[in-house]
Design goal:
Blueprint: E1 4-6, E2 31-34, E3 42-49, E4 57-65, E5 71-72, E6 86-87, E7 109-118, H1 131-138, E8 142-152
Antiparallel strand pairs: 1-2, 2-5, 3-4, 3-7, 4-6, 7-8
Length: 155
Amino acid sequence: MAFALESPAFSDGDRIPRKFIRDGENVSPPLVWKDAPEDTRSFMLVVEDPDAPSGTFRHWAVYDINPDRDRLPEGTTAGAKTESLGHGVNDFGNPHYDGPQPPKGHGVHHYHFRLAALDAETLHLDEKADIDTILKKAEPHIIAETELVGTYEAS
């Protein structure tokens, strides 16, 4: 089986429910993955909108996710007491999830939830690291990636 990412809230290519939109409840959707490589030592998740008017806009990054995990529940903001999840500073300037918020009249935007399996237990990043810094630090450690794409259009 191939490394795969899913959400009980929406299927690949489907519209992201309003609950997970920045102008809605702005909570992160539940995510579930399977068949990660056996040598995975941590995971990193990044959510990006390549359809933004100014170029790719990054909405969320979570890193140093325990390799025993196979999900992030809805509204994930921190790890369990035995786990310290790192959260990158997104393009809104916030160290947490900020959902889709495309400009009205700009058409359908595609939100890429990219999960990477890493060969490093931790990325050793400052808590104020932005998502670009996280991606650069993680890149040499990526052993597998999977993606889930949701869409949203402001009305």
